[in-house]
Design goal:
535 residues; 20 helices; globular; binds glutamine
């Protein structure tokens, strides 16, 4: 039977619970155990797919096409867990399911209530994800901060679940903040005491505290926290700030967290080390030999989380090339206002990520043009491929006002358009082309050279496609169709023949990149970029 680790957060949000959960997953794997991770999100949206990046940050897509919270990205990057739709449970999903059952008559005669119906549904969801994956350890992260109204049903569900599976089969880890007050020169333990107090009021007693802190927490402070929170001082683990998120598992291992968890869960395990992670991933991030200056041209540039997986995939590609990727975030609307030269002339590579809606599009098209004309390595992802096609159609094929029908319904040259099957769709939720699709690569293309094989599978999240009516015209002028989805003959990758390295892909390679295994397309992009002389 699987053992459970429930992770909650207290005091403030943004404590890095997702990274902590992913790191604990990594630590458990380093002890030879198989893990899965589940994120519970207390919002009422069924999934984050319909949310604006300003609200939610990136929407992470799994192999099975689920649109999920970005923490699942951390989980997949840190561990070998294969995640899918059951690994992200939202309040919306739970209520949707309960209300559907109620309408069907499944609860006939009963009053449907938060306890037990909503909490039972949450427990079922967690158990389903656990049993599907047949793992040793299930890590369940509860989103939000303890004390929020929204997360109460989730906390009640994990309280009950611990009793159901047996106390020795489950562990509660609470992530809190121990702030350092400069004027007093002191670490403050009170917020942690209050947060643990709030948890205890609802019947959850943490077994381990992970205390985020900018300074080392001295023994006396740990003992004080332990005393007031009613736990052993060895279970009060400092989680200090580190240079890169990939150092967190090493830092927590140093504090003995893996051994403590295993002891408390009464589990036997081997002790594999994290040598490769330490010597390759972390060491290379900290001491790279060269620099690669990459511009990411998007419209959610000010948001740390909007292009999370892209930024991480660039870091991974840097690791593979022993380079630090120096990311310049360029707002595509600034390019519209001032032209590309100012922002792009000194970079070694240009990346245009995915996106939706017309705002900022013309700036992205200009960025693709600038990369093509100045022979700067270019990686266009999803919308970034579509703008490269629009640019090529307008400037090389002479299709004036070519566009995607997403932005201009009446364009005379709809080089990017909807498939027939997308046209009748009215609902916005989970109706895009989502998840893994096969793609066959053309021999001799740069894409083929990057992957080193012809058949690949990549994750998608889009509605619009390259319009096959224009394919021949585009190809005649030198656009290379380097990859297609054979079943429907859809263009998945385009390249420019007469360019050192210019790739646009309709899928999202960033979702499959890992720190110790950079995605081939990102790896080659940075390879090309970091070897270029500085302009
Ligand atoms: N808006 C475009 C589409 O729906 C691109 C989507 C994306 O970049 N993820 O096809």
């Amino acid at each position: 039977m699987s053992k459970y680790i429930f992770i909650t957060g207290g005091v403030v949000s943004s404590l890095g619970k997702g990274i902590a959960s992913a790191s604990i997953g990594k630590l458990m794997e380093s002890r030879g155990l198989k893990v899965t991770l589940i994120k519970c999100d207390p919002y009422i949206n069924v999934d984050p797919g319909t949310m604006n990046p300003f609200q939610h940050g990136e929407v992470y897509v799994t192999d099975d096409g689920a649109e999920t919270d970005l923490d699942l990205g951390h989980y997949e990057r840190f561990t070998n867990a294969k995640l899918g739709k059951e690994n992200n449970i939202t309040t919306g999903k739970i209520y949707y399911s309960v209300i559907t059952k109620e309408r069907k008559g499944d609860y006939l005669g009963k009053t449907v209530q938060i306890i037990p119906h909503i909490t039972d549904e949450i427990k079922e969801g967690i158990k389903k994800a656990a049993s599907k994956n047949q793992v040793d350890v299930v890590i369940v992260e509860i989103g939000g901060t303890v004390g929020d109204i929204e997360s109460l049903p989730f906390l009640e569900a994990i309280r009950q679940l611990k009793l159901e599976v047996g106390l020795s089969y489950a562990l509660n880890i609470h992530v809190t903040l121990v702030p350092f007050i400069k004027s007093a020169g002191e670490l403050k333990t009170k917020p942690t005491q209050h947060s643990v107090g709030t948890l205890r009021e609802i019947g959850i007693i943490p077994d381990i505290l992970l205390c985020r802190c900018e300074k080392n927490i001295p023994k006396e402070a740990r003992e004080k926290i332990a005393l007031f929170c009613n736990m052993d001082s060895e279970a009060v683990i400092p989680a200090l700030d580190v240079k890169t998120i990939y150092e967190v598992p090493l830092m927590l291992k140093n504090e003995g967290l893996d051994s403590l968890i295993l002891r408390k869960l009464n589990m036997k395990s081997v002790d594999l080390d994290l040598k490769n992670w330490k010597d390759f991933v972390v060491a290379r991030i900290k001491n790279p030999s060269r620099v690669s200056k990459i511009a990411v041209v998007g419209k959610y540039i000010d948001l740390q989380d909007a292009y999370k997986s892209i930024y991480e995939a660039l870091i991974h590609a840097g690791i593979a090339n022993d380079a630090r990727v120096d990311i310049t975030r360029v707002d595509s609307e600034d390019i519209e206002a001032c032209g590309p030269e100012k922002y792009l002339k000194s970079v070694q590579g240009i990346l245009v990520p995915g996106g939706f809606g017309y705002r900022g599009i013309e700036g992205k098209i200009k960025a693709a043009e600038f990369a093509r004309e100045n022979k700067i390595p270019y990686l266009g992802i999803c919308l970034g491929m579509q703008v490269a096609v629009i640019e090529f159609a307008r400037n090389i094929c002479g299709f004036k006002k070519a566009n995607s029908t997403e932005f201009d319904k009446k364009t005379p040259y709809p080089v990017i358009s909807l498939l027939e099957e997308q046209k009748g769709i009215k609902n916005m939720g989970a109706t895009m082309r989502l998840g893994l699709y096969p793609c066959t690569l053309k021999k001799g293309s740069r894409a083929f050279a990057s992957y080193g094989r012809a058949n690949i599978n990549e994750r998608h999240r889009h509605r619009y496609e390259l319009n096959n009516k224009y394919r021949q015209a585009l190809e005649q002028k030198g656009l290379l169709v380097a990859g297609v989805y054979p079943e429907k003959d859809l263009v998945e990758i385009i390249e420019h023949k007469d360019h050192p390295w210019f790739i646009g892909c309709q899928f999202h390679p960033e979702f499959k990149s890992k720190p110790d295994k950079a995605h081939p397309i990102f790896r080659e992009f940075i390879k090309q970029s970091s070897f270029l002389k500085k302009r």
